[in-house]
Design brief:
Elements lengths: L1 E2 L3 H13 L5 H20 L6 E6 L3 H15 L3 E6 L8 H12 L5 E2 L13 E5 L11 H12 L4 E4 L21 E5 L11 H5 L1 E5 L6 H5 L4 E3 L23 E5 L6 H13 L4 E7 L3 H7 L4 E5 L12 H9 L3 E4 L7 H13 L4 E3 L2 H4 L6 H4 L5 E3 L3 H8 L3 H6 L1 H12 L2 E4 L5 E3 L5 E3 L12 H14 L4 H23 L6 H6 L1 H9 L2
Parallel strand pairs: 2-3, 2-5, 3-4, 5-6, 6-7, 7-8, 9-18, 10-11, 10-13, 11-12, 13-14, 14-15, 15-16
Antiparallel strand pairs: 1-9, 16-17, 17-18
Helix pairs in contact: 2-3, 3-4, 8-17, 17-18, 18-20
Length: 513
């Protein structure tokens, strides 16, 4: 897993470098600027004779830009440096490197206004203006510079974080630089992985500034990005003498009139992720549909008096069957009829099996989150931001602005593993640990995608994978299957069933890692 940090955590690590390990800030800045120049060289392919414009702010981000200017010049590039501050405002290590640059004959352009054009026309622009120093909307010269840079038809390389992007949560206040690539120093910043910041960051390159590795243990992060190597060790293994009952059983409580597809996708995903048996608990009046749709899934129909939804009167018949299963998945397409809501609440009171609660199962807990908190078994919640907003009383925008903090708080408060779905999905554990998914694409924003995810997580749990590992692996596998589907079908035309169809081969590929 790759640790990711906030701006303040990175500042603490920088301070440890200089205070505990006696590494001068000038050395760290030199390493950062050299690494930045190397990233620029790859973007230019051959830097000899290429024009590079570097826009620098007054702080250490600008200092990295001054160092990069020296190294790019030595590589044969023609570099112009524009500073969005008076010289008197520049201090510390940044001033040292500015002075070095000036002593080599550079004519530094201290901007009082943004130029109408750049001369000579650059092949690459480097944004070394503010980085992690953003707080609130950009104003004055910085706002004008962002508009100017974004209007240029050449690639932009951002230093650490694109100017205007909040390093901690990816939020953009009004405007930010749109970079093709971001060279971030030492460790990725959380805001580079979350929207809308990640859309402005482009491709991410981590620059090694030679920070001692021990610092990560001294200042451990509680947030990680999932990498491919993290998944194979937690995936279920099939014994040579396995039989279906030993591979785990899942009861899916799902479906209502008009939403048979949700129950179908979840049930099929349970099977595709390796569970030995799946039982679909659904309204009797819909059972003929499922008998046609589902070949491998066992259907358990319950009398619904022709209503098309499960209701609390089914509880006495339902409980004995559910208690005999390894895992229960509740919610996809279940509907929000008053009696259905009461049924879900009763299941949360009565059951103790590991459970995945999704969609209308979550909606039934609005105003009754104590049912989740007091659930006696392992519980995985899989809300999208709108569903989590209903559970918390926050607005959807509040959640999107700080999804990591909200997910962390809810997982701890309710004692659950929480998967906050999105681009990317975020997994929160009860101990405060956060995992940001690194797979998936915009084509997965399609009806039924979340139902497939619910089935995958439940299927993994049925095979003995812990709730936490099943959530993390399920989200990663789901996204990777979506990426496979996207490569074959494109993002516009793919549907949830395409994600489902790619789950088996995704598991094969991961088993080879």
């Amino acid at each position: 897993m790759k640790s990711v940090v906030t701006a303040s955590q990175m500042a603490e690590m920088d301070a440890l470098c200089t205070q505990k390990y006696r590494i001068p800030g000038l050395i760290l800045m030199e390493n950062a600027g050299r690494g930045l120049a190397d990233v620029a060289r790859t973007m230019l392919k051959d830097p000899i004779g290429k024009n590079v414009s570097i826009f620098c702010g007054p702080g250490n981000n600008g200092g990295d830009g001054y160092v990069a200017a020296r190294h790019l010049t030595n590589m044969g590039a023609f570099v112009t440096v524009h500073v969005l501050a008076e010289r008197a405002k520049i201090a510390g290590d940044a001033l040292v490197n500015l002075t070095i640059l000036e002593s080599t004959g550079y004519s530094i352009d201290f901007l009082k206004r943004i130029p109408q054009t750049l001369q000579p026309p650059p092949h690459l622009i480097i944004d070394a203006m503010l980085g992690t120093g953003v707080s609130g909307p950009l104003r004055g010269l910085y706002a004008q510079a962002v508009d100017f840079l974004n209007a240029q038809s050449v690639p932009i390389l951002a230093v650490d974080v694109p100017t205007g992007v909040d390093a901690d949560n990816g939020v953009i206040n009004e405007k930010a630089v749109r970079a093709q690539k971001t060279a971030t120093m030492a460790m990725p910043k959380i805001g580079l992985l979350l929207p809308p910041g990640r859309l402005h960051a482009g491709d991410l390159s981590v620059v090694d500034i030679c920070m001692p590795s021990e610092i990560i243990t001294l200042k451990p992060s509680q947030t990680w990005q999932i990498e491919v190597g993290d998944i194979p060790p937690v995936l279920p293994r099939r014994a040579p003498d396995a039989h279906k009952n030993r591979c785990g059983t899942v009861a899916v409580v799902a479906g209502s009139s008009g939403f048979t597809g949700a129950a179908t996708l979840t049930s099929q995903a349970v099977m595709r992720s390796g569970a030995g048996l799946c039982y679909l608990c659904s309204p009797l009046s819909l059972n003929p549909i499922y008998e046609i749709k589902l070949t491998e899934v066992i259907t358990w129909p319950f009398d619904d008096a022709g209503t098309g939804y499960l209701h609390s009167g089914c509880l006495s018949q339902l409980l004995p069957k559910l208690r005999g299963q390894t895992v229960v998945a509740v919610g996809p397409g279940l509907g929000q009829h008053e009696q259905t809501v009461e049924l879900v609440r009763q299941l949360l009171r009565e059951l103790a099996q590991p459970m995945v609660l999704d969609a209308d199962g979550l909606n039934a807990c609005e105003g009754h989150t104590d049912l989740m908190k007091n659930y006696r078994g392992e519980l995985v919640l899989t809300p999208h931001p709108g569903e989590l907003a209903r559970l918390t009383g926050l607005s959807t925008n509040d959640i999107l602005r700080d999804r990591i903090a909200v997910a962390r708080d809810c997982a701890a408060k309710w004692g659950v593993t929480l998967v906050l779905k999105g681009a990317p999905s975020v997994i929160a554990f009860t101990n405060g640990h956060i995992f940001i998914n690194s797979t998936g694409n915009a084509g997965m924003a399609t009806a039924g995608s979340g139902d497939v995810l619910t089935g995958i997580i439940a299927g993994f749990m049925a095979q003995g994978v812990s709730a936490q590992d099943a959530a993390m692996a399920g989200v990663y596998v789901h996204g990777l299957a979506g990426d496979r589907a996207s490569r074959r079908l494109g993002q516009i035309g793919m549907i949830a069933g395409d994600i489902l169809c790619n789950v088996p081969q995704t598991l094969v590929d991961l088993s080879r890692e």
